[in-house]
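EI: anyone free to look at a 127-residue chain?
SC: sure, send it
EI:
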Amino acid sequence: NENAPVYRIDDNGIIDDYNTEKIFDNNNEIALDFSHFDKGALVFEKLNSKWVKLVDSKGRGIRVDFADYDYFGVWQRPNVKPGYLCLEPWTGMNDCYSGDGNYKNKRGMRFIAPHEKVTLAIKVTVI
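SC: here you go
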C-alpha cells in the first residue's frame, strides 16, 4: 500500500516541494481521469512499489517494472485529451523550490566516476 505524496511541476519546470498532494490513502490503486493532470504531472518519490500497471476496464494494458529507479512520473499534456499517458521511471527530479540551484544538490542526483558503468533497467510487459 502507498502513502507517497505527489509533487507537481510548475509552468517553469520547477517542482513545488512545499505543497504536496495526497493521491494514495494507504491503498495501491488510482482511478485515473483527465482531471488528475489539470495541474500537470504526478511526480512520486519513495514509492513502496517498484512496478505499476495501467489497465482498462477489461484488464488489458501494460505493466512497468522499475526496481532501479527512485522516482516515478505520470503525465500527459495538460488541458488536452490526447490518446496517450506517459509512465516514466526517473532517477532524479527537476529542480525544487527548496533547492539551491546547484545541480550537484538536486534530489536523486547520481554521480558516476569516469569509466564507471551503471546499468538501470525498465521492463515493460503487455498484459
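EI: The two ends are 22 Å apart (CA to CA).
SC: 👍
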